[in-house]
Each structure stands twice: as C-alpha cells, then as structure tokens.
Amino acid sequence: MEAGRQENQDDVTRFWREEREDGAVYSAYLKKVTYRSQAQLEDEHEREFSHLMWETQKIRVIKAGTLEKLVESLSTVRGELDSTYVNIFLATYRTFATPQQVLKLLIDRYQMLKLCCEDDRTELNELQLKTIKSVISVWLDTYPEDFREPPNYPCLHTLEKFSLHFLPDSDLAGRARHRIERLMKDHTGADANEIEFRFSICEEVDHMIDNEYHKPLTFNDISSHTFAQQLTHRDAELFRKVVPHHCLGAVWARRGKKGGKEAASVLATIEQFNRVSLRVIATILKTRDHKTSQRAKIVQKWIHIAQELRELKNFSSLKAIISGLQSHPVYRLRRTWSSLPKDTMVLFEELSEIFSGENNQLNSRELLMKEATAKFPDLDSQNKTLKRRNMQKRQSWIDNGIVQGTVPYLGTFLTDLTMIDTANPDMTEEGLINFEKHRKEFEVLAQLKLLQSAAQIYNFKEDTQFWIWFDSVRVYNDNESHELSCAIEPPMEGSAKIKKKSASLGHKPAKFDSSKFGLFACGLEDRSSLSSIPDTITASLAGPLMSHSSSTSSVISSDSDTSSSPYRSCDTYVIRVSLEPSDQASTHIYKSIMLCNTDHTNTVIQKVLEKYSLEGQPEDYCLLQILPDGGELLIPERSNVFYALNSSIDLKFVVRTRAEHETLTLRRKGKRRGKKLSL
Fold first, then answer.
1. What is the fold, at CATH topology level, of the domain defined by 203-244+265-369+407-516?
2. CB 136 within 8 A of CB 172
3. Deepest in the core among 40, 100, 414, 483, taking most CB within 10 A?
4. Domain at 571-670: CATH architecture
C-alpha cells in the first residue's frame, strides 16, 4: 500500500455503529478511501490492479466521554491531528473544563507517551507527541485570553516549565515567557476585559476638556448618513472584539456563576445596542411641546437613519432603531405615526419585516447569509419610488467600487446558542460530557467568526462631536417614558377618530409584528449579575434585563390603547393570569404579569403568587394556558414558559394547586368515560 493516501470525490463515509468503551461513546463510520494516484492508474501495468484502488477504513468520532477521553481524542487513533475536532474542542471546552485542567491533561498525556517511547519507541507514539505539541501551540495562538490569568498567570508558567524540560528544542517556552512579560506589563490591577469593553463617562469628560470648544450638536444637525456611519463604526469595532465563546449559552446565561465578567465582550455589544434604542425613544418623547408634524419628522429621520444602516449592512443598530420605534411608548403615538408620509411608512414596514419573528426570524437569517460576504446589499422595495432610488444607489456602488462590511444582530446567535444549551443536556445518563452538544454550538460560532472577518472591511473614522452629542442625550426609564408618552397623547383618547383620520389620509397603520419588539436580552437566567448594564435599561425595552419586571406590567396594562394589540417584545410577553381558588371552579379575574424569555414555570408561578399577595411554594402549584376550545395546556414543571406556550392564541393562563389539578383531571376523565359508556 502506498504511504501517501489521498481522497477523491468518490470517497464515501457512512455511519456504521455506536461503539462504547470505558469512559467514552463513539460513532463509528466506514469510509472508502483511495490509495493509488490517478497517475498510477493511468500506467498500463497498474491498470490491471485498478479493482484494488480503494479500501474501507473505520473512523471513530467521539460523542460523549470523560474529560480525559475528550483530551485524548485530540489526536486520532493513528496519532494524527484531527483539525475539525481540535477546533470544536478549543472553541467550547470552557463550559465543562478550565484551561488549567485541559493543560494538565495534555501535559500528563505527553509525559506518559514520552515514557512509552523510551521503553518501546514507535512511530505512532512519536506522531502523538508531535500532535500534542501542535495542539498546545494552536491553543496558545488562537485563544490567548485563556492564558490571561492575572496576577500569577499559572497556565503560562506551567507551560514554560513543561516546555523547558520536555521540549528544549521548541519555541514554546520562549513564547510563554514573552506572553507573561507582556501581560504583566499591561496589567494595571483591573480586569483587562472589563477595561477594554467598558464605556467610561470620565473618558468622555476628559475628551471634552482636552478638545477645543465646538458648538454642541443637536439631533437635526446630524445627517442620516453621518449618523449611520458613526453607529456602524462603533458597532463594527465592538463586534470584532466579541470573543466567540463568550456567546455560548452556559457562559452567556451565567450558569458559570462567575459574575458575568467572562462575557464582557457580549455585554459591551448589548450595552451599545440598548444605548441606541433608548436614544431613539428619548429624542421622540422629549417633544411634548412640539407639534405632531414636528415629532413625526423626528420619527421619519430615524427611519431614514435605519435605511442608511441597511445600506451599510449594519443589522445591529438597524435592529436597535426598529426596536426603539416599536417600543410601547413610541408605538402608541398614533397621531404621530398617522402624520408620516406614505412612502416612509412603506419603508418602515419593509425594514421591520427584516426582523419578523416568523419561522425563527427566517427573514433576517436568510438575508444575513445572503449578504454576509457580499460587496453591497441587495435592496428592494414595494414602493416604485424607493425601488428606483435603490437601483440607482446599487449602480453607483458598482461604478465607484464601493464594498460594504457586515455587522449582524448578535442576539440571533445568542438565541441559537442559548436554545442549544437549553435543549441539550451537558451530561449523558452515564455521566459523560455530551460532546455532540458542543459540535452543534461550534456550527454557530463558526458563522459568527466568519462575519467578524466581514466586519473588518469598514473604514470609518470616529467623529468626536457626534459621540459627545450621543452621550449627552438624557434617556428615560420605563415609567418616565410611559408618562411622557401619555402626556403627548393621553391614553383615554378615542382611538376610533384617529383610525378614521388615518384612513382618510390614505395611510395604512404600521404593522407592529409583536415578535419584533424589545431589546437585546435573550438568554439571561441570572439578571442580578448584570451590574455593568445601566439602570436606564427599561422593561418595556429590555424585558429580562430588568430586575423588577413586575412593576412594568401595571404601566402597560393601564393603557387602553393596547387592548387591540397585546404587548410583546422580542424577549417578553405581557400575559394575563388568574389564580383558581379551591372554593370556586373558575374565575374571570385576571392580573397581568411580565413574562421574560428566561422565566421557567416556578418563576412565573412565584410572580403570580406575589401578585395575589399569597404565600406558598411554587412547587405546590401548576401553570396552564387556557385554549380557545375550553381546554387547557399544562406547562411542564421545569419548562421555559416563554417557548412552551402557544403564542398564536390569547395569552390567558390559570394557576391552581397540584392537588386541585389532579382532582379536576380525574373528574374530567370520569365524565369522558361516562359519556363513552352511555354511547
């Protein structure tokens, strides 16, 4: 057999069986591989043996295993480097191991194989030693943050000591020493990640002092084009700095209980997203003394800024602006929306449709994959004027050789990774690490890293005056926003007259798809850990980012305008829940509560008990959604209610004790059995 095998397009890999051994479960595949080159086959003598040109090999892929077995699998049974597995492992291992644990296992395995080589030198052992060295080298280069452990840097010191003793001819010891010296020089006593990603008010003040005086800008002074460029400059910078494994569900959802510092790069992106949305709301609501037409012009400008962001393929701030415009305090200003030109409303609806929640945000996903690495966006419109304008812009980009980068809405990736984390157990029933879960996570992380490369294309310079204005905008909390909104348009005004006026003007009401509301807050289980997020983030925007979401529900439910369009954000619902007493078969008294996308069954039940001022353990109650036909949908005990409920019907629920529910269930079964017997 030739030493150098090669594969061709006819090679086939098929699943064969599952194989188990102590501490690991493998998927075994049979792969047909060639071992004769095309040149050899063209030789007349070799052609006689063409039927021997291929063989079948068994390939094992680890599905689950102990940490020791997962580290051992970094090299194949033939001692080779499995680059795919190494990439997946290094991208996801932090959810089940620490850098110190992995490094120790790699060193222990290297030492064990080294001893075996001295006793019985084999080509396999030599190849395995080389592979372990390659894995450590790739790890050090690709994930430098894993070795940033101030002030003592234990992993780097361990690596230096190991390399000096076992790899004297390697440059690993020198690289480890250089890294230690550089990190010690850069370290100032504060966490490097926290410094890098924090927005500092003091820095902004120093900026203003050091620079010569300029007349402060106003919202109207800033062109839509400049606005979009500056937001894109900041968004691209933050997105490029996102550490992909910070987005993993177990990290992002705070299951690690480490205070959230490990996800600093993600929190910085969230903070900027929320800063944009809050300023959309603030600039519109601080116009109490303005005429409706003046306020409408501000809304119109935000829509034009959103369109500029769409042309720059900045889906992050685009989503932030749409979320701000669709927030409850702005959405309810019907007179303002009715004053917008028809083509502006068409544009707004088309931009909003990008983030439709239908089919798991299929529109935004397809658009992102289509335009991720494209030179410029493929714009279209139902409005003939907008369509003609978009075609002219596209031709201008082609003529001028303009290439746009891409900034995605990070919330899509966080949602996917959180769902993977929630739907797949960390451990198998045998107590092994479920590595299939991490393969799925890596597919999402790989897409994110590809987009980070696309974000490098932007070449905008920061405009200091713009950011001085941006940071000077006074934003409002949820109560303030609601009060300002009601001051502009009182909630008890007859909405029928407004609808009639809108219809007479030929304006179609904005399609506020409820799934498009809200800010960037999916996946957070421990809201108390978000001390780094400003208190100005509101429940009407950020849902799960609020520590006291129950206070907001009363604000929302008090506005009669919402009766025809139930409030829902991308990350929250307002649901109506009744508490069924033991002395009453049913009740029509409902109280509204805020349901966040991280609320599990017991959390919701606890909110209901607090609403009804009752003491009790959530475990003693059950939660059921009332169906249109009179039936009930029982929400499982450990379920995430946000995803378990039926969102296509009215969000009405009932809470009753488990004892009452069991009694009622038996009674209903008895009635059905009686009906069958009578038939």
1. Son of Sevenless (SoS) protein; Chain S, domain 2 (1.10.840)
2. yes
3. 414
4. Roll (3.10)
Tokens of 194: 């926290």
Place of tokens 């599990």: 600
Q: Note the pLDDT of residue 432.
A: 95
Q: CA-to-CA distance for 511 and 322, rounded, in angstroms? A: 12
In terms of pTM, does the model score above 0.70?
Answer: no
Which position has the token pair 């410094």?
195
Which H or E run includes 464? helix 464-472
Secondary structure element (H or E) that encloses residue 291, with its range: none
Structure-token match 């658009």, residue found: 367
Structure tokens at 618: 């959530």
How many C-beta atoms surround the C-beta of residue 343 within 10 A?
14
The count of residues in the chain is: 679
Residue 510 CA to residue 338 CA, distance in Å, equals 9
Separate counts of helices (H) and strands (E) for the chain: 30, 9
Residue 582 structure tokens: 């033991």
For tokens 């069924």, name the residue: 580
Alpha-carbon torsion (337, 567, 328, 470), positive or negative: negative
In which residue ranges of the chain is CATH 1.20.870.10 found? 13-186
**Tens-place pLDDT, residues 83-122:** 899 999 999 999 899 999 999 999 999 998 888 766 666 7
